[in-house]
Amino acid sequence: MKKxxxxxxxxxxxxxxxxxxxxxxxxxxxxxIDFLVPLFIALFGGGKAFCNRYCGxxxxxxxxxxxxxxxxxxxAPKFLSSKWFRYGFLVFFLTMFGNMVFQTxxxxxxxxxxxxxxxLLWMFRVPWGWAYTAGTVADWIAQFSFGFYSIMLTSxxxxxxxxxxxxxxxxxxxxxxxxxxQMICKIKAGEKL
Amino acid sequence: MExxxxxxxxxxxxxxxxxxxxxxxxxSVWKGCYAQVTEDVCVGCGLCARTCPAGCIxxxxxRVAR
Lengths: 193, 66
Known about the structure:
Radius of gyration of chain A: 18 Å
Oligomer: heterodimer
Helix content of chain B: 10-25%
Strand order of the largest sheet of chain B: 1-4
Order of helices and strands of chain B: EHEEHE
Largest sheet of chain B: 2 strands, antiparallel
Shape of chain B: globular
Largest interface: A-B, 37 and 21 residues
Number of strands of chain B: 4
Number of strands of chain A: 2
CATH architecture of chain B: 2-Layer Sandwich
Strand content of chain B: 25-35%
Distance between the termini of chain B: 9 Å
């Protein structure tokens, strides 16, 4: 057994993040760490150290699917790790992210009111009003929190679903952050995308 | 013949799940692009192949043993 390092426990961070957001949605902003750090590491020569070492999401899937054996642990369909699906999912994900930012802009501009709900799987609206007291911060800051938390929770739900069905880290094969960072690394190394 | 892990670089997503389980430290992610096997160290146990979520690692009859 290999010696465990401090970063092998970062799956705890994923649980803490969702717990914090359950009680106060403004903590959703902390998710920006998981969004920006991988990109910065990839851009500034660290390769995929984030996926390889620090990703709490991947570790959580490994803990639940691997150590707790909540995974069928069978091969995933080939298309899930094919390039068109990976890049297609990345485009879809970024589009939805852009839409979320646009909704935030609409609230900031006063064209729309704050909606205290999160949207799961881009479809299901779940009331989440208990996690926010109206007027605590500017409406757009709260709106972004709800939107960002939705994205984080949605990707975790998909991740857990494919974890249960296939191998623990199946999510990693089409994770948009993983696709983006690998793209950056391949471009930098002069490899074929 | 020795059995060695071999990575399909075109499919590898560089997640590093293989490197985490390798008991010999024989597989690592090269510059964030894909996993690379150090054949001198690999014992062909197949743990990486079983862990790989993309199914891009196969244990093959590698080079001839010296």
